[in-house]
Structure formats: C-alpha cells, structure tokens
What does this fold into?
Amino acid sequence: MNPDRLDPTHDPALRSWVSSAHVPGCDFPIQNLPFGRFRPFGSSEAFRIGVAIGDQVLDLRATGLIGDEDMNALMGHTREARQRLRAAISAGLAQGSDRQAAWSKALLPQSAVELTVPCRIGDYTDFYTGIHHARTVGSLFRPDAPLLPNYQWVPIGYHGRASSIGISGQRFKRPQGQTKAADAKEPAFGPSKRLDYELELGFLVGQGNALGQPISIEQAEAHLFGVTLLNDWSARDIQAWEYQPLGPFLSKNFATTLSPWIVTMEALAPFRAPFERPAGDPQPLPYLDAPSNRAAGALDIILEVLLQTAKMREAGEAPVRLTRVNVRDAAYWTAAQLVTHHTVNGCNLQPGDLLGSGTLSGPRPDEAGSLLELTLGGKQPIELPNGERRSFLEDGDTLILRGFCEREGAVRIGLGEVSGTVEPAQGG
Amino acid sequence: MNPDRLDPTHDPALRSWVSSAHVPGCDFPIQNLPFGRFRPFGSSEAFRIGVAIGDQVLDLRATGLIGDEDMNALMGHTREARQRLRAAISAGLAQGSDRQAAWSKALLPQSAVELTVPCRIGDYTDFYTGIHHARTVGSLFRPDAPLLPNYQWVPIGYHGRASSIGISGQRFKRPQGQTKAADAKEPAFGPSKRLDYELELGFLVGQGNALGQPISIEQAEAHLFGVTLLNDWSARDIQAWEYQPLGPFLSKNFATTLSPWIVTMEALAPFRAPFERPAGDPQPLPYLDAPSNRAAGALDIILEVLLQTAKMREAGEAPVRLTRVNVRDAAYWTAAQLVTHHTVNGCNLQPGDLLGSGTLSGPRPDEAGSLLELTLGGKQPIELPNGERRSFLEDGDTLILRGFCEREGAVRIGLGEVSGTVEPAQGG
It folds into this structure.
C-alpha cells in the first residue's frame, strides 16, 4: 500500500446516500467511482459520461461538474484536475451531502441504460507482460526457446486493432482463415478450430504526450487514466501460421472485448504493491527503473475467468470458474514501464489510447489466463462439472472475466465483468 | 489497361480552364483530381476538403457539390456516388464549363494553403507485399530462411500506429531505444544507429464493412478510395532486438509520413495491369483469387526515392535519386487481396483506414526501396555525388518519395511527393 496516494475519497468509513453502493460484494462503492459512457435503453441520443455508484449511474453532466466535453477530453486533463473531479463526485455522493436532492435526479438504474466502449480508442497496443504466459506459450510455439532473449529487457508489445473493440455482451462469429497442419503441404481455409480467450487488463491513457517527447518513468503513472478488463480473443491455429515474421494479425483482430467501466488509477491507490524482480533476473535498464516504480508499481487485483457453455445456459447452470490469479503474481512489467517504453522513441500517446497487459497467468498451472495454457495446447482438455470437455472454445460458449481488489483496511472495489459469446462461423 | 473502367473523366483530350493543370510534368491534370484537406496558411479554421488541380486547390464545399460532411464521410460513400462526384468535378473544371466563373472563386493557390493528413485514420495496417524486399531483408535477419513458408500463401500484415502519422514535411527526432549488438551480453540504450526509410504505397479505405461481414475479392476494390505515398521510417537496430515474437513496434511507430493528396482508384483506372504469379509459384487460395483480380489487379505506378543531405541542402544541390521502381514489378499481392484477407476473419474496416503496401522493391538490386537493401545491411555504403556516403540515414537528411503514372494513350498523373527530415535524437 502506498499511503501517500490516499486521500479522503479512499476513507473506508465513507458511505454514500446511494444505498446500493454498500451492499456486500458490490463492485461500485463510493470508494470506486469508475467512468463509462451510457444512454437510456432504446434511445438514439449521444452517449453521455456516467459514473457507476452501486447499481446506479450518475449522469456527470447533469451534476454540473463537467460541461459538454466528451470522455476523451475529460481523460486528457491533468492528474490534479482528475483528482479534483473525483473529490467533488465523492463529496456529492457522500452521506450528508447537500447535493443529494439535486443529484438524485441525475441517477439512472444501470439496468435501464445501454453502455458502450468507454472512450474513443485511437490506438490500441497490446503488451506481453505475463511472464508465466510467455514461458508456457513460448514452449508450445518454440520448444527450443520458450522465453526469448529480449523478454526480460524489452516490455514486448505490438499494435492491435481498434475498430473491432467492443464491450461486455459482445458476440462475434468464429473467425475463418488460413491454417496449416504441421504435416500438411499446403494451408487450408476454414473456421478456426483453436479459438481461445486471453485474460488481460486494459490500461487507458489519460493525458497524452507530443510526438518526440518521451514520458519518463517517474511521470508515467500521471498519464494513465484507469483500467478495464480485457479479453483478447485469439485463434491459435490462424496465429501459428501467420505470425512470422510480423506478429499476430487476423488471429486477434476479429474482436477484443472490454468491461464498460474504467476504474481510475486514483481508485486503485489503496491496492498498490511493491514491484520486485525475482532474484537473479536482470534489472531493467535505467529508463525503465525508478524508486517509485519499485515501491508501488504493482497492482493487487484479483482476476477470474468463468465459462458458461450453451448447454449450461440451457440447463440454468451458473458459469464455472476456470482461473483465479493476482495481477501482482503475473505481470513482469508495470503499467508505468509500459507507458515509458512506448514513448521512449518519441511515439505519441493520446487520451483514450488502450494498452493491454497481455495474458496474465500466475505461476501455478491452474492460474493460467488462456485455454492454450490450461489444456497444454489442446492436449489435455479440461472437464467441466456437467461432463462437457473443452480443449478450445466452442460455438455458444460465453466467457466471462471478473476483477476486484480486496485488502485489509480498504473497502473492496470491483472492475465489474466482461462477457463475450462465440457464434458459429459465417455460413457455418 | 482495363478499358471498361474508363469514362469521360479519363479522356486524354479533356482539358481544364485551370491553365496550370496542363503544364508538362504536372502531377494534377484534370484527369487526376486527388482529394486532400487544407486551410489557408496561418489560419486556425477547421481543415476543409480540397481537390488538387494544377497548382491550385478547389474548395469542394464552395462549389456546392458537397455539404458539410467531413472527408471520412465522403470516403464512406459507395463507389457509384464517388464516381458521380468525380464526374461533376471534372465537368465543372473542364474547358467550356459554365461553372468557371463561380468556381474560380473556390480556387486557392497550393502555395497559400496548409495541408494535413488527408483523413482521420482510425486504424493503420501495414502489409508486406514486396516479395523482393521480403526475400532480401529475410536473408539479413534469417539467413537460413529468407522467405518464410507462409509468404506465398498469406498476405502478411500487422497493425501500425495511427497517432504518429504525418504528412509531407514531417520532421522527427531520431528515435532512441534498446539495441543489442550480436556479441554483447546485454542490450544498450541510445539513439538508433541504423535509421532507414521504406518506400510504400498507402491504400485508403472508402466504404467499410460491418464486424463479422467479410469483403469478397470481387467486391474488394469497391471498398478502396485511393492511394498515397507512404514512408514507413524504420530503426533497424531497434527492430532486430524487439521484433520477436510479436513483430515490429518501437522500431516503426515514431513516425510514418504520407503524401497529402489521395489519388483515387478512379483516377488510376487507365494504369491497371494484369496480375500474374510467376510460373511455378503456388496459386492463391480461392478466397484471394478472382478473374477480375487477375485481369487488372496490378498497378502501373512508378515510384522514386530521393535523398538530400544537410550538406547538399546547404550547397544548394538538388536531391539525388536512389531508386526507381514500378509497383507492378514489386507487389506480390494486389490491393484487393489485402482488403479481402484483412476482413476474411470478420475484422471491420472503416472509411479512412490506411493499408500500407509494405516496402516496394523491384527485382534488381538498384530497385530496392530501403537503405537496408541498397547497402546490404549497411555493409556496402552508397556513395553520393558530392562524395558523402550513407549506410543509413544521418541527422539532417531529407528523404523524398515521388510517384506517377505514365502510359501510351493516357495523360500522365502524379501522386505528388512526400518528404521527411531526420532531426537529432532527444538531448543529442
């Protein structure tokens, strides 16, 4: 924990006049205050900026705290401005606030609104910070060199596709493409047979930087607005055939699904942890190293993956949990290191840009963030409680990611969830 | 040539009342009519849609042919709507038009306007269609496997960075980053020592597709709006260390430079050519093959690369040509194949998306589209007329790409040019 980042908005004793915010297990108590974009169900209005509180959404513009700026403009403010806005929202929603009467009219039930991608995502970069994932997957793709020589030096990343990003509830057709069996002379075309998910966090950029002006490691956190859950759907058979030499492309860009609420870096302040490299590992180069990053660079967030097959849904059976992992145990690079590395060559980040963490797998085999890892490349299918087996995802499967933070002395906050459903391939 | 695509706007006898359009060697005769975005120099107005004619810009909205739509909206129209717009612009600019008096007031000299990136680029994908480039570079990075087994089957591509795209005149600082010498134990940090350009075409998407709805090879060309020149600046030493396993990242995303005028697919109609694979090569899979693509999939465009060093500039010496290549001889995949491949998995393209061709090198060593190739990985520096030598780009170098189409029976049209200049590294 990093107490110098804490302020009255984190006070565990703070309570809201929105009573649903304090139901046990609620993701959105007054200590959280995540941002999203909403409009009333069935409306064709422009999406508005909202803050989740309990089972309600606060229409931020209706509170008078912001003007007609859009989410990206709001995200582009300085960290100090964001902290002031957070303090004002917290004060207005707190028990005893004189805003209660006015702001009650700015609330809508979450069940009555449609949400959308929380901001305009200009560029999406996906990193590869999960070292246990990199090692396990590397051993499947390259048995001779599971962890490449650059991994412990370079926060490996690549550009992803922004147009196909959706939010929780996204449904997509199983992708088709070229694949080549190891013993085949030529590739074949058809629906992917090795469709997978990837458990990730998405970091959303706040204030950007000008082209040619790197962001130092000390300043990097100030440029992050917050986090979402991210499912980086992956077609492993398409990936294996296409990825050399320029990286994954059609194996990834058919869909990427985010949770709709951005939990701010400010809300995560009580859940920071020291960041240390395992003994014997090389230390990061100086541009990626700073005392602040060592002291509190890590995030203490629990992530879970759940699966509900079509058969389970029809039988009324709840989703079954496949994985539970703490981000602290999975990520080899911090969010600040990603920002600094991304800009060290002068590349410019813009408000709303998305940085994926890469698949977050813990050190234990049952903490893996993808089926590729859980089933050892499809060789050991997992058995579900209803007797079904899965090597990879099947049509009708719904995959759910959840995330939350819990710690002694702090109020639990949640990242909500992101679900997505696989539909049969085009013409399939 | 594909005569069924020709219409009265291509008539070689057609002349404009804008007299500069018919100066010999002019890139923008009335048969061209490329689109860009401009505003008067020194103004802070919003950029407007313009059409280049001779040395003038036609303010399209001032002609009354369009309303207040932006460039991306205009690009998203159907091909038929675009053809109607082109016909109307051509008729109004033609000698004898009754619009001459009114439209004369809608003209501004190109020397009096500021241009910008011609549209809002949501996503940028860079392909790798230059087979001679792929083979030469492959032999430098992987002597044992220059052309990977997927190359002749998969139109290899990867996602690029949209935020750092600029237009002709872009200046950028030499990127810094991690590099590792082959004999070094650990990587080092510093300015790139192997900075290079890449000669490419950029295809701009017109009408998009919905997520999950692939674009067939027969329909693909209708979804392209036009082309620009593209310089995909590359830091080879950063690339060599970072690119495994997810592809190039910081080695590319510090800057990408486009020519400011989009030459439409309609303007290129007289310069189409049959597209045939060399005898003995595998045929493309059926989803990438169509009679229309074989009949006229290729583009007959001449590209040139020129270099002007700081010393040459100071001495008043003109840029020197490094390369001249015809796209026909360089590209292993057609633009239609890129569109179809990109969407076959359901990925959605949007108006204004950019598809880079990848480096276009001809079969002859002196037709190479990068210094990496011309100097064999820096081993054989090129000598310039003033006695300077270059293995890679040095600070102060200005690199210029030009493109044009010439053919018996057609009026020459040009793509204009794109220049960019390397500044010293941050703090360097």
